[in-house]
Amino acid sequence: MHSFLRNTAQDILQSYPSLKEVTVVLPNRRAGLFFTQHLGKIIDKPQWLPEVKTIEDLFYGYAGNRPADNLTLIFELYKVYKKIHPAPEDFDRFYYWGEMILKDFNDLDQFLADAEKLYRDLSEIKVIETDLSYLTENQIQLIREFWKSFNLQDKGHQDKFLKFWQMLHGLYLAFKEELDQKKLAYGGMLYRQVIESLESIPKPERQFVFVGFNAFTKTEEVLLKHFIKKFDAKIYWDLDAYYIQDQHQEAGLFFREYMKDPVFGPTFPDTLPSEIASRKAKIKTYAIPLKVNQSNLVGKILEEISGEESLEETVVILPDEQLLFPTLHAMPPNIDKINVTMGYPVKNAPVYAFLEGVLDLQKYTKIEDEKILFYHKPVRDLLASPYLQHENTKEVQELLKSIQETNLVYVPQDLLAKVNSFFKMLFVKLTPPKIFSYLGEVIKRLHKQATEEALQKSYLMQTYKQLNRLGEILSDQQDVEVSIDFFIRIFRQVFREVKLPFEGEPLAGLQVMGVLESRNLDFRRVIICNMNEESFPPGGGMNSMIPFNLRRAFGLPVQEQNDAIYAYTFYRLLHSAEEVHMIHTTAGDQGKAGEKSRYIQQMAEEMDWTNRSMDEEVVFVPVDLSKSQVISIPKNEKIYQALERYVLKGAGERVTAFSPSALNVWLDCRLKFYLRYIAGMDEKSVVNEEVDPAVFGNLAHLSLEILYQNYIERKKSAVIEKSDFERLRELVFPSIEKAIRKQYFLEDNAEVKLNGQLAIARDVLQKYVLGVLAIDESTAPFEIISLEAEKKYRTAVVIQTPSGIRSVAVGGIIDRVDRVGETVRLIDYKSGTDKKSFPDIPSLFDRQLKNRNKAAMQTLLYGLLYNSKFPTESKPLKPAIFNLREIFKPDFNPYLQVKAGRGQGYELNDYREYKEEFDTELKKLLEEVYDPQVPFDQTPHEEKCRYCPYQEICERG
Amino acid sequence: MSEKPFIIYKSSAGSGKTYTLTKEYLKLALAHPYAFKSILAVTFTNKATQEMKERILEVLSRMKIEIRPEEDLDRTLLTHFQINAPELQERAKRTLLAILHDYGSFSVSTIDSFFQKVVRSFAREIDLQAKFDVELDQDAVLSRVVDRIITKVMEDPLLHKWLVDYAHEQVQEGKSWDIRTGIQGLGKQLFQEGFKQYQQDIKLFLSNPQNVADLRKFIHAQRGKLAEYCCELKEEATRIRTENGLEWTDFNGGGRSFARRFEDLGAKPCPVPVLTDAQSKMIDNPDAWATKTSKQKNAIETAFHAGLGRILSEINTLTRSWNTLEAVRKNFYVYGIFKNLLEELVELKNDENILLISDANDFLKEITKENEAPFIYEKVGNQYQHFLIDEFQDTSGFQWESFKPLLENSLAENKTNLLVGDVKQSIYRWRGGELRLLLEEVERQIGSVKIRVENLETNFRSLPNIINFNNTVFSQLAGMLKSTLEEKYGVEAAGILGRAYEDVVQKVSDRKSEVPFKGKVRMEFIQEDKEAEEGGSEAQMLQKLPQVVMELQDRGYALKDIAFLVRRKSEGERIVHNMMQAAQDFPEYRFDVLSDEAMYLGQSASVKALVAGMRYIFDPEDMVAYTSMWYFRGVIFENEVSHELFSVEDLPSELEPKAAQLGQRMPEFLQMPLSEMLEELIQILDLAQSGKEKAYISGFKEAVFDFVGKNRADLAGFLEWWEENQQKRTVKIPENHDAMRILTIHKSKGLQYKVVLMPYLDWTIFDTSKDNILWSPFELEGLPSTIIPLSLKKELANSAFEQVYANEEIMAYLDTLNMVYVALTRAEEVFWSFTAYKEVKKTTSLNSLGINLQLLLENGSMKDAAVDLPVYFDGESKVFEFGEWGDKISSPTIKTAPSDLRWDYTPWQTLLKVRQLDQNLEGSDLLDQKRKYGLLIHRLLENSKTREEALQWIDAYWFEGEITQDEKGILQNQLNTLFGQELFKGWFQGEGVLLAEQGIILPGGELRRPDRVILKDQEAIVVDFKTGEKKKYYQDQVQAYMELVSEITKLPTKGYLCYLESGEIIEVTLVGKQGQLFG
Ligand code: SF4
């Protein structure tokens, strides 16, 4: 196989037998590694290694300094900026602009541009002065072009632009001075420094060899030429005629330029290698709908590699690093060794998510009455993590439960702190300076916990290191105010990039790498994923404050150069490839269509396809949707056991009773009944900031109960008269407060902390309760017999089952029983809009009916319950429904109406008139529940499924 | 060139719009190889962008190989440039290569992405942050805004009171007290142009709380007054009635008499009774007040004149006032907090650093207003001279205003610009599309001096019968709808329908008229079978659908030739289910469907099982999740549904080992990255082995993949995200897969299919049930005038806002017409639809599309129509059938055997290990600390040639965060101690060649790296630095190095071991070999 690095090693060995006097400079360390490996394969006896370094090393070596980290630099930049700018934004907001400005300065220096001339305002002087005369006519034209577009007539944006622009040169100078003083530098600054004192570099005693470069920055170019001219350095180019000779090919852009250069020119070989054209690699492209499916395809392609081949000759290029794990997960068994250049991304690890969660906790804290409170969501997320449950699983579960029950939207610190020392340390409110020691402690704690998790320990170690670094940097910047939010952002930004290196020999096994890492390496089989625009080449967009034409005029790189670099990395992969697989996706992100990479299109148009072709496969993943089934569960022994719970046996034995809602559910849908009452699939409740209808209804019930309960107790009489209402109205508000406390399990004297929604709910509730009072006032006087929670009513219904006669328990709570005149009212409060009329008793049990009156069935059942509890009561038993939503209607009437169709109906005055019929129907219903022939099946009426929690299982709704 | 530079192409359906665009593009792009860089072609969707690009490249690629002068395109270009074929070929080639190699400058883009690009380059000038994300999910943003508002309630008593009043009012009306829904509903307007164009005025009005309070007071007062007045009227009416000895039932109509309305006067909640049309006719018509036979005829007449007549006639005016007040009141509360919403939105965008997709339009408008075009181009870095805008009928007012300055700039230099669109295909009005721009506005604004309008009138898409049918139907349907409107609103107002459909008649293309098969239209009107069990006409239609598909297959159509068009996604879903069922019932036919809009990932049992599994892992108490997981696994494996499957305790025996395995791994799962956990779960549930639903499982993996890429990767977060986003995730299938398409009319624009099926061809034309919002000026004496939101309701028709209502109705009619137009013109050969048949009575409302079509086909005979429609309508079967089937065709089917992919899972740990960093974190551990320093010093020494370099490395470590400031000091001290020893110092300076970074390489590639090798003329020195305990084998190691060094250098070699913590140096002597060599 053709290999650039091997050939180069061979040549160097022949030209400079004494390798120890040789310095080989390569574009990156990885290429260096491969280079030495090739060297080793060639030599036959031990040898000195040549010195192998990167061009950065070379520059920094001569500069005698290394660049400071970006964050420090941006801080320094900001400090200078604050001095210059009349109204500087705060650091949080400046940060990204700072990043951009810093990058511009770096470019300026790397490309030896004249900052003063660049950052000047030529808007009014439309003639470009002579001091730009060192520029070419073309460049001057570009500059002119730019400034010509200015039209300064009260144009707000241009004004803004100019103001900022004019400041930049000052910023540049002051910034560099400041850095100089602090012995700090950014990369470009050092590069420029080296070039400016180029003449003072002593002639090295070593032979310099530059290997495998494609695009130089201006400073690099100057240095190299100097080395070539003065020190007789040598250059090896890694290139191919295919993209150099064709002027269109951006991949050859730099080479073509360098070939024309008097110094570089002669270093090129006389005849350019022509590997790409001569090899005629087998080329195949694949269009695939999903990104993750690329991995499945890679797995398949790799499966075909025969045992004889050496895996090292195959490379999988992943332009999107995130595809690494899906790809690894699809490795076939014949791949037994693999080398991955990318590291393990710490950000995928749950432990990292935990740390982010810890920080998110800080975003939503508040202090009330000197107590620190945390928002429930991040708390809940943290509590659910294994890291907090590690030691005190039980306590944590309890804690979660109580947060849920008391609907703690904000969780107080002391509640959390009491679990253990870790909790105490974790749940604190931070100030920005404390953040580092805090996170450090958290990490140490997690590290200690993770006794056996080697991987976990490694992430934490790495995170800890990075954290120290950040801490140090920020601790030097005390004078700049940084918010917690900013810190969290920076934390994310830094840690999202942290990777853990993989173990293993870099040079053995299947090679998996990113695009840029493949430089100078050669492979026989190349598999490239994400061959999409925006991926390979990556999305464009020069982030710069310097307008495009000015960049061009001053020789700063623009998109064109970027394109050239990426194109080169792509075509270079073809140098030695005999088999190329290119996979692109057709479904894009966020509505963007997946566009296939320009390289595929270029190849299709330009390669010599005689006697071969570029195969395109459209990958299709089968759909085969499983069809949903009809669910019907026959009754079996186990189910009967469950149903036994409702059957009364000996005297005094407590059994479960069928509640009115259970009976209604049975009528609505037998499967729902099964799932809820037999299979026990109850839903989980969660902390809910919204006051959902169920909670609201509950609050309404509670409020009314408390209101009357307390009043009766105080009055020592259960009879409510018209004169009582004034006082009752005053008690509404405290009753509601009490109800809220009860609903959320708060202690009696606990202060009620309302969040917005609840505050509104409370006030609305007040209006409702007042509405009920108004109705009651008009009915008064009446005597309250019982209020819901006091009494549970239950009774036994005797039914016929296959296993004989059974007594089944039916029971429920009646919201309120009172007596008005000679009538006992059985009242149900409802928060919805229930109908009160129904045609006849059987209709209440007819599941075929679309609008079966459930409320009527329920309140009539109250009649049954009341009647069987007080069989001697002779007054009429009159069901009533107080549905809050209708309470304000002028013609509000709480009583049931028996009425068929449009006909005139009549009010239902006494349950007993319907008793017989009702009993029969109820018996029938219960007998059906116990009937072995009746399975638990789905309701045919899909509208019943609308609010059913089991919709998903049934695929209804 | 003297030609007018601004060309507007009005392109009816199928008239080769893409072709025209391509042609025009090439006319500009082929001028010289780099001309393409100055053209911006704007399309409506990303997909269209993609297709446009492909189309251009395809043509160039073909021309590069051959020119076909016989083809219109080539001929046009040859004449345009006045060149010969080889020259054109050469130009095509050069342009193609230029584009492919400067692909970033190939500017075919959507309006949105172009706008965003400009906005980004002006970020600083318009006070945006340097980096921001574009947020597409505006509903989610709104919901966060509302959250914030509600939390503010506690701090803002005014807001609190306002919202409670709002809730209270809702309650009084018997609605739910929940105010969120209301706020959320109207709040959507924040992102709409309808609102944005008045934003400034509204903000101004709301900025003074007094204004809102006054408005509220006013409305309250007016309502009160009106109610009072109505009560008075009622009293008066009652008085008149009794004076005349009448009962209301004595009037015409008896118990249901119109006269009972008098009783309703002043009732709550609505004091003004609403008169039906029939009742309104009673006004001023005393003769009708009593039945002919009524004995009270005279008394009634007296009563009429005594004032009842006047009162009745007053009711209508009162209704009008009442409706006006109600319309204002309806959205009043939410309107009142729009200021809060706007402020909160700004804050939220700032906090979250996002730009809403709808903001780009606003900003661009500002940018193009503030800046001259050249400056914009300079900042963006693209110099556009030509604009080609596609689908112009869907461009919004804001978008046009943003573009206009750029276009004018270009037109000023007489550069060619182009708009292409079809008013008849404008179906995005709800998104801001403003068809009037294309219809007349642009011409008016730019002036005809520069504009040339071209009509593309030949249809190249469809067979003659389809075209002729459409020609007839649309001329007549437009006329029909227009006359309905004219009756209501007059000729003038309805005129827009006529103008839009003026040029609806298309010519048949030569090529299509030569084909023997002429095309076919079949429209079935289903008469509901009252006997049938249930489901009505929809069920009947769904029963027929599989038959239709089978018939088409029998006729040789491939699945991919067939498309179902629907109005709503839910209809699409029902068709998916229907086809799935059919696939089981008729195994000898195929029913594969493909839809981006109706095939949700969440429908698949595998995905449901996985989601349930993840829920269970997140919360092991969640038994619904646990049970559902097994149940859905059961669905995949077609397990019998039994009690066991649902019961928590006793799973079916074959599942027990699975459950055990899951239980065992649970603790690990929570500590795994999400995607890994997912793979494991797929494994445990055997979903990959099942071999089913691969596309769904993959889609779900992709969802996790996307989530992890952008968010904090924890399970809780994912589950929440999935909850909210699952409705946005559908299965992705390659376009050319052989399956029937199901798509909404909106998405079908620009597409065409041999056969188009429309099973639900009916909808309400003017739908006032959806609470759509209209913004209307509103003036009140004593209050600053403002713009208020009105909910579109029937009542508006009789209110001060009737004009707004009328406009809306007219536009709704046009919407419907356009929508059918788009639908019917998608078909190349066959159009087949289903609509419920309605018996037409006098009272039948014409407000539905179905009835209009039915009337048209049943009896819409017209003299000079191309097709005499009723002739083809069978009154018996209610089927319209036009055109005969042709011979059986054979449509080439593409084989789409599933590709061979690898589905098995390999845990990555079997292949790779993360390198362990085993340093101890506990800083207090002194020993470790020392060891750490030792290792660091080792590292920096081996990398340094001189003492200075070593010191530099310390700085570097510090920068990289490896060491702290304090540690830096410690290291520096340690270095000083070491360099204090002369021997040591000697290794870092002075004579001899230092080989610090270099080692020795052995054949085969193995490396030996003594820390230092110093070569002098007469001797070589080897030094190795060590940390920690002294070890015997260190000496052996150094000896081995010495042997190698002396072998290479042929020099006597000295060796040293240096322990870095203590600074101790031990000399190592070489025994054996060396003696033999040099002895
Ligand atoms: S979704 Fe429908 S069928 Fe299923 S349990 Fe609920 S109500 Fe019954």
Kindly provide the radius of gyration of chain A, computed on alpha-carbon positions and rounded to a whole number of angstroms: 40 Å
Largest sheet of chain B: 8 strands, mixed
Q: Count of DSSP E strands of chain B? A: 27
Helix content of chain A: 40-55%
Q: Note the overall shape of chain B.
A: globular
Shape of chain A: elongated
Low-pLDDT stretches of chain A are none
- Mean pLDDT of chain A comes to 88
Radius of gyration of chain B using CA atoms only: 40 Å
Structural class of chain B: alpha/beta
With strands numbered from the N-terminus, the spatial order across the biggest sheet of chain A is 8-14-7-15-16-6-17
Which molecules are bound besides the chains? iron/sulfur cluster
Beta-strand portion of chain A reads: 5-15%
Taken as a percent bin, the fraction of beta residues of chain B is 5-15%
- Total count of helical runs of at least 4 residues of chain A: 36
In whole angstroms, the N-to-C terminal distance of chain B is 98 Å
Main sheet overview of chain A: 7 strands, parallel
Mean pLDDT of chain B: 88
